[in-house]
Amino acid sequence: MIQFDHVNKRYPNGYQALKDVNLSIEQGEFVAIIGLSGAGKSTLLRCINRMHHITDGSLKVNGTEIKQLKGKEIRKLRRNIGMIFQSFNLVTRISVMKNVLVAFVPEISWWRKLLGIFREEEKRKALMALDRVAILDKAFVRVDQLSGGQQQRVALARTLAQNPSIILADEPVASLDPITAHQVMDDFKRINEETNMTILINIHHVDLALAYASRVIGIRGGEVVFDGTASEVNDEVLQYIYNGNVEGGGIEHNAKQ
Ligand code: ADP
Q: Which of 44, 118, 179, 235 is most buried, taking the most CB atoms under 10 A from its CB?
């Protein structure tokens, strides 16, 4: 469970990117976070794995207040939270398999790291993760020979190999063509259903958010202004999230406190 209570995030330059955020996300939810560029979507995600530090309020992940965590505890938190980026964050000059094996690097001893020796069990897990996203046949191909969609699948496999309970995805399909974007979203959906991993996706394609996510959170100017099911999102809601020019609207009350 991820629990935000009165969370504020102010960057060192004084800019307040999150304003009194209150959210409760249960294990296994598939959540899309939508909003204009600069609304605070990425900040919200990055507070969950402590890439960013909240300024005040409380943020608990599986019951642990993450504000107080230090060094080793932060690494432990991050092992349980996979992160997927728009830019895939892969080492393109090495094989798909080696990229997925990177998931085990924080856990292996310094000498195995130096020699690049991975256990059979780790290799098996890496291959299983590649199979899950249907690119097992590419295991020994260099990443730079793959399409964008295939590269995002490698990134997803690397995250799955880590066996996290939460996956945070920051605009994972933004650089993909529409057909490939649907395929990658299908992967996220299937993994969510098969593994009960919580998935939070920042996405600016509203149609994709509504097609795949069961819950949609709308952010505007650092505030949660909508929190509901995909079927509750109508034109009025979208106008409110994206332009803020709908008078009254009775939408704000839907943001769960
Ligand atoms: P989104 O993901 O919705 O595009 P972000 O979370 O990236 O939005 O950014 C929210 C706001 O915080 C933006 O106005 C952005 O300029 C600002 N911001 C992001 N990172 C920093 C930073 N390191 N320092 C100061 N302001 C930042």
A: 44
Identify the CA nearest to 187 among candidates 144, 129, 137: 129
- Kindly list the structural domains of the chain, giving each domain's residue range(s) and its CATH number in brackets, ordered by start: 2-241 (3.40.50.300)
Which tokens belong to 80?
A: 């349980």
pTM of the model: 0.91
41 Cβ closer than 6 Å to some ligand 1 atom = yes
CA 210 to chain centre: 16
Atom of ligand 1 nearest to the CA of 44: 6
C-alpha 245: how far from chain center: 29
C-beta 42 within 6 A of ligand 1: yes
Beta bridge partners of 84: 169
Q: What is the CA radius of gyration of the chain?
A: 19
- Rounded to the nearest angstrom, the distance between the alpha carbon of 57 and the centre of ligand 1 is 19
Q: Between these two residues, 175 and 44, which has the higher pLDDT value?
A: 44
Closest CA to 170 of 152, 190, 147, 145: 152
Residues 117 and 113: their CA atoms lie apart, in Å, by: 7
Length of the chain: 257
CA angle at 191 for the pair 189 and 194, rounded to the nearest 5°: 110
Residues forming beta bridges with residue 18, ordered by sequence position: 9
231 within ligand 1 shell (Cβ under 6 A)? no
User: Does the pLDDT at position 249 exceed 70?
Assistant: no
Query: Quick one: pLDDT band at residue 250, thresholds 50, 70, 90?
Result: very low
Q: Can you read off the two tokens belonging to residue 212?
A: 């795949």
Token pair 């949609």 is at which residue?
A: 216
With a 6 Å cutoff on the Cβ, whether 56 touches ligand 1 is no
SS3 label, residue 68:
helix
